[in-house]
Amino acid sequence: MIADEFKEEIEEALVLLQKQGKLSAGDLPEVEVEVPEIPEHGDYSTNIALRLSKLTEQSPQETAHLIAGALKHPVQVAQPGFLNMSVSLDRLAVEMAEILKQKERYGKGSESKKIVVEYSSPNIAKRFGIGHLRSTIIGQAIYNLFSFQGNRTIGDNHLGDWGTQFGALIYQIERVLEGKSDSERKHFLLNLSVEEMERLYTEFHLQAENNEKLRDDARAAFKRLEDGDTSTREIWEASRRISLKEFDEIYSLLGVRIDHALGEAFFEKDLTGIIEEVQKKGIAKESQGALIVEFEDMPPAMLRKSDGASTYFTRDLATARYRLKKWEPDFVVIETGAEQSLHFRQVFRTVELLGWAKEEGFFHVGHGLYRTKEGKFSTRRGKTVQLKEVLEDAIERAEEIIEGSATGGLDEYEKKEVARMVGIGGVKYNDLVQHPRKDIVFEWDRILNLRGNSAAYIQYTHARCQSILGKARTPRSSSYKDISPAETSLLRILQGFPLQARLASQRFSPNLMCSYAFSLAQAYNHFYQQHRVLEAESKEAKDFRLCLTAATAQILKTSLSLLGIEAPERM
């Protein structure tokens, strides 16, 4: 990987400069290599000179020239002290050959860490709304990116199947079942639907807005659940079973697979031990009948409620301990809504206070919300858009577009498969192209954008490449030298894939992969508009352009795969 070679050469130069006394002794900062936003600044850039200027007691510009003079290969020094490196055309051609040789393995890393990624984590007894999409697909993309870097990645779907909210549902269902016989009760629970549970949940909160007694009744119902009441458990188990069946249908439609599904209820048996350990280590204190953990720089977290019921905080501590013991990960990544940032800061800090692991070994990737033009979606008020409906509608819209265009000889089955790939891919990409923390306003006319920066544009470019390749044999190599600016630009973007994939994983930012794939698709289409491929002016030009086309197809497919999006062979 060229970026790694650039980094290693700089690191060797820094060690040499220290030995020569041109850098003062001390720990050297890590060299960070990035891709410049402006192509004229080269293929790779580092700001190491700005960070080292204190050790040289010189300006960043002077420090950059000092480092440049110790390098084997030429670099450009740019204000205020950047080192920029451009890859030679010969090396770009070598990298293209590597793409053709390694195929989907090109750019894979060798990090070999063990990483737990928590994502999706929907609440049972509620339909899978559009709001659950973000954690599911952002988390899956982060999982894919870490795995691609050579890590052993473990996905955990931390289902919301416990907590006070189930008290509200149980209370409503108990009211419905009041006075019914055992057989009637069994029939009701057997035929209970997620839609009905959500209706009851919404109904409760509308009634409880100004009714404190109802809220107390719900808390009491959850306490009975925690205490193991048989009747209450039966209601809870029915709601969980029905919900998981719907979740599996959504995951299948999205093409999402998660290694484990360990809900909050799984850790119920560990909660007493967790509370006892926190108390034993002197971290907890009583406050108005409740048990809390205090922090110097944050509000307190509640470990146990005044009525003895457990909390989300306690259950997440139990989850953290289980993961640390079960998998011994190098670090844990939790992908949930950004509004939970404080909660996870409290959890991670407490994990360190308990001596289980360092706080730095936990990361919370917080995503923004899907919003309507009127504000936030709310299940409590019944204002949700169901994800299954969104996905099915996206597929139908893609079908209409395919039917109204030249389909390249696709049969009916192929049309439906392409519509599924384009529809689902469009919904995913529309989300993933945004920075995770950014809120997304939900609008039907934007959810499936088949032009511009969209999955469909990238998918179509991949299909265009495959169509060209299907009409000719792809050569293994090419010695073509008369390379145009459009071809050079495409080569430069292609060889930047490994670094872009690594940066996307390091920064928990699938949107970087989206931006890269879109730039590559744009560069190929620009090249295609300027140059003939199959009818090129010479055999050398044709061979070279077929290699470019094959390399582009491969990297587009790999990029989309990392985002959890399929790449149709034909469109």
Tell me the structural class. alpha/beta
Using the 3D structure, state the CATH architecture of the largest domain: 3-Layer(aba) Sandwich
Percent of residues in helices: 40-55%
Please state how the strands of the largest beta sheet are arranged side by side: 1-2-4-3
Which fold name is given in CATH as the topology of the largest domain?
Rossmann fold
Total strands? 14
How many helical elements? 21
Provide a quick synopsis of the model:
The chain is of the alpha/beta class and 571 residues long. It has 21 helices and 14 strands.
Characterization of this structure:
The chain is of the alpha/beta class. The chain has 3 domains: 2-86, Gyrase A, domain 2 (2-Layer Sandwich); 165-372, HUPs (Rossmann fold); 387-562, Isoleucyl-tRNA Synthetase, Domain 1, CATH 1.10.730.10. Helix content is 54%, strand content 9%. It contains 21 helices and 14 strands. The protein has helices spanning 2-19, 48-56, 60-69, 89-102, 133-148, 165-177, 182-190, 194-208, 212-226, 230-254, 271-280, 312-327, 341-353, 387-403, 412-432, 444-447, 455-469, 485-495, 497-506, 510-530, 539-562, and strands at residues 33-34, 44-46, 76-78, 82-85, 114-118, 152-156, 284-287, 290-293, 301-304, 331-337, 362-367, 370-372, 375-376, 440-441. Strand 10 (331-337), helix 13 and strand 11 (362-367) form a beta-alpha-beta unit. Helix 6 (165-177) crosses helix 8 and helix 6 crosses helix 9 (212-226). The protein starts with a helix and ends in a 9-residue tail after the last helix.
